[in-house]
Design goal:
The structure is a homohexamer. By secondary structure, chain A is α/β, with parallel strands linked by helices. The first copy, chain A, has two domains: about 130 residues, Rossmann fold (3-Layer(aba) Sandwich), CATH 3.40.50; about 100 residues, Rossmann fold (3-Layer(aba) Sandwich), CATH 3.40.50.12500. Chain A has nine helices and eight strands.
Chain lengths: ~240, ~240, ~240, ~240, ~240, ~240
């Protein structure tokens, strides 16, 4: 099985972190192919960033892959990707939140900037996890500053507060760039800590193993062709696989 | 007051219809400036179309406008536009649905293709109108076929069914391209029929009259600047107005 | 357009404040006619007050008006007024809350007495704004004490707490008697502060401009006539306009 | 125990039906005192009727009673009555819906006019029964026509449809004037059929037996006194019992 | 009327407390028959305890009773009991929560161990009381330690905090073993305090008085017979009464 | 990895079907150990059956397993199993419903007897899937009759109706005994059809791969020990692994 993990920002070092997280949990026989978006913002920290990242992300989808993971916690472009990709597509926020629901009554999200909390709450609502989402916490570290040791202390602090103040049974890390912190935080905190990249990797694998892909019944059927095509876009490569 | 109405698809004839709808309800003293998106799909009938329309739409936002209307019923790019525009931004689905709530217990949406119904339902949920949304009905006419007389009969048929079968007190037309049908349908059906372009025009005007714009507190503050800027995008023009 | 703003309590000085708020935002060509309820409580601070205010409010509705605003944050008599008025009727709580949803992710209400918070929460639920209503805060100033400078300090304090503690993007003022504080509070706080009278004035105007009124399909059709009429009530004047 | 059942319309024959329903289920030792509202509409079939019925209903509350039932399915004036009455107050819609929840997964309401269905749905939402309310059905018989044998056939027909089409486990009768049909319908249909008057009588009795009344903490404390009193209203009699 | 109150744990002293609570509120003519579960855990403080208590509880149901109360705040086995009992069955959590809704806007639950709070929240959701449930508070006293005077102080402390911090109008005691504290706490706190055993006793009595039992339409019809019967279980006694 | 799949009824032939479904999707390296419950009902078709199945199911949990699947669509005993098992525990209804959410906007459940539909709806609510669950359909085939060819036709008919009438994008099969129908139905219908046993097998595997198990923070910590132990139960074997 060939599983494509798309980093929808253009920062290659983050793609490497994401690829490692995916590989660390993939089942035997799964090939992880991680790609960096060909164009768009260097990090995704606003609705504007998300919107500008989507065309690059969609262009990066590889029709030869059996399934796709979108490795940004805002799950940008998820519905659009489902329409145009042949295999199933999984967002890391949806996978992390749904996985958390197997492990306890409630979870908190620990994310980067407070300005992204609204999007996380909206996703929890959309994914049917709002009742279980105790709180979305921000450590106010920008995405590209996550490597900093002080950042890690800030994240740990918010995770602790999630357990003691919010009563969270489970922590969901709210950024693909935090993927490498998961095991250490689980050990430190004594509650499950979930990274969306890992969760989504397993979820996407599972869909392929179950022999299913996105339903083509109505909403997620391939988009109707346009007179004159899509200006400036390279969607042509998908035509064959529909 | 200068109110910009953005048609996020690239079909200029639809922009003309939209502009007429906006002008027909604008208050005295409001200048309607309607623009066609500079690049993107010719019509928006899928999640993919929406996603590909957003960069063009964002590029079209005019910093000199006092307020903006996004004239596509999927309300594409609404959150992103709110971050980068100086004045308030109103989507036509949110305006139509919220306006409907003043007029009766329940409404039905009559839209173009059934494949877009899921997005309309999701927006009703997001906008707090799900309890009042009786049903989303599709007449299965593509956006660019709305001019056809047969299309009008199909729309009227769905509107009638909304009243008699769904018990809808109000009809919301689910496409900016239907803006010119509103008065005739209201007369025919005997219940209020709402066009989102008109509703959003008045809502945007009202926000300016109230002296308010999008809150800049956290989520909708201008996006953090990126090292190296946004590749390939012309957001620079907004920097001054932030 | 003739827009009637009804103060459902019997305190004429509050009607003057309300009229000024309505006039300050009305579009050119809109005539604001503000009336004081002919009988009922001097202020509305309880469910009992609301109930006792409704007959006077309904009696005050002027069939010659094109639209009506009910200027009390509990939106008393709104459904009944919709049945008997020819033009659309807008409550100030519904207008303020729906307007807030255009401006940010969440709002808090700052009201007079804590005992009215339950009603505000119930209205937020009814209007589809419960998901966005961060909190209802009371400054514990009675309605007729709002002119007091100490009251203004208390209101400002609660507004500040709404921003810093509740994470509110927008403030909704929960009493028609606060209408004159709006601009000063917006300037002070740096987030949009909404007065329901102003918001409802623009919403009611907009409905008239859109050419719609309350749906007459079923629930809001004129009430069935009674054998012997309504004892002791002057509803007769409406008979003609139905 | 003295239990006051208030008929909020002015039709004495309906009060007799209501009294009989209450007496048929009251516990030994409970005295049922049924009163007809001193002023207001002869039947309650609209929001306007409800609003105009409330002052009479509030005036009819007897401070010597241990508890009160409001015998109209719209539960008019319930919150106001709770503020001013010494003992607990129960509405027949809330009692019927909450009782239904003990007896099955879902219920349907069978009411008089379709125009009242919106209010019933709103109450189901308010009372936490919306998830269980399968449908509100109307037999289109006016309140004062319920005695007609044809009316009874229409009601039975809707009840049958509730079971077979809606999958209702339980039927809730949506009008105090249907109170005498309960036993016959239960026998005919083979599922529990609930009359709100009977359900509310037992609920009110139970609250007295439990030694509790409406919480006086904040919202339902007695209304603040007004300068000059309540014009034209006889609330004075309650002052002592607060 | 013969009302069976089942203590689903095997501690007879708790059965005595429960029986006294039921008798203190029962209507004249109601015979309270309290039974201790024949097998299962000595107290119920976990999901495991609940699950292991259910077979004993079901075996204890007496077909000669007119109604049944399940006297454990987790309402264990409620759906199963409804299928196999002839008369109505009421859980103490559902009765306490629904009763609280008649008395104020919001309630808090004060329970024994924090680990049971998740179950209480889930029940509030199921019973349509989630909107009114301000918080579930734990005093961290085990069920069998409730007799301890220090336990009573801890409970009182949590009740006070529910009023002052949560804004609860009503307190619901979250354990059948607290039944004897109700009156003293109500007097101390000045807000209604509800014990589920008392509330359920009156609710079950009321259903019998109304002449109804669990709907037998589909879900709660007697379970289909099995080839070979239920191994090791004594359900045979119920066959006749179905 | 050793994954235990527990059939909570006592019918060994159904265990074989379940085991085959689990093995058909398990990742390389996963050992599937399927067990039949040692005591309880031969099939689970009622709340009573579920309740009586739980002690046997709990007794069957093998502490040597890395994870557990409960293979009955009512997810009986799930919370209790999570408290006492060392590894994660997954129910087939929760896994099937959550998996469906990755594949389309809405799903319908096709189950055996209509009497079980209420439980499926309740689970959809609990799992955050109620918004997506279009309908629960029953083919009225008892669990032990699923092998019958006529049964398969009935199931196919309901699946077709789910697509055409409910607008379901995805079908969820509502019984572990239908596990072998999945691939054929997917091929026939052209939309994804999910079997819970397969979905849960992958979900449980994934949790182990992610290195997490049920949070032990509060609710799902091992149950507090009892004075005298659990009468008649063999929980002792779990003591060591806690």
């Amino acid at each position: 099985m060939r599983l494509q993990v798309v980093n929808p920002n253009t920062t290659a070092s983050m793609t490497a972190t994401i690829a490692a997280a995916a590989r660390s949990v993939a089942a035997p026989g799964t090939e992880i192919v991680a790609v960096t978006s060909p164009h768009g913002p260097v990090s995704i920290e606003s609705h504007y960033d998300e919107a500008m990242a989507v065309p690059g992300l969609l262009a990066a989808l590889d029709p030869a892959a059996d399934a796709h993971v979108i490795a940004c916690f805002g799950d940008p472009g998820l519905d659009a990707a489902r329409e145009v990709a042949r295999g199933p597509v999984v967002g890391i926020a949806e996978a992390a939140m749904r996985t958390a629901l197997y492990l306890g009554r409630g979870f908190s999200v620990v994310t980067t900037l407070a300005r992204t909390a609204g999007r996380a709450e909206e996703l929890a609502q959309r994914y049917g996890a709002a009742h279980a989402c105790r709180r979305v916490r921000a450590c106010e570290v920008p995405v590209l500053g996550l490597e900093d040791p002080a950042a890690r202390a800030a994240i740990l602090g918010e995770c602790r507060a999630a357990v003691t103040e919010d009563g969270a049974d489970v922590i969901v890390l709210g950024c693909a760039g935090m993927a490498d912190l998961c095991a250490a935080l689980t050990a430190e905190l004594g509650v499950p800590v979930l990274d969306g990249v890992a969760a989504a990797t397993r979820a996407a694998e599972s869909l392929v193993a179950l022999g299913v892909t996105t339903s083509r019944r109505s909403e997620y059927a391939p988009p109707p062709p346009k007179p004159g095509g899509f200006p400036g876009e390279r969607r042509a490569q998908y035509t064959d696989s529909w």
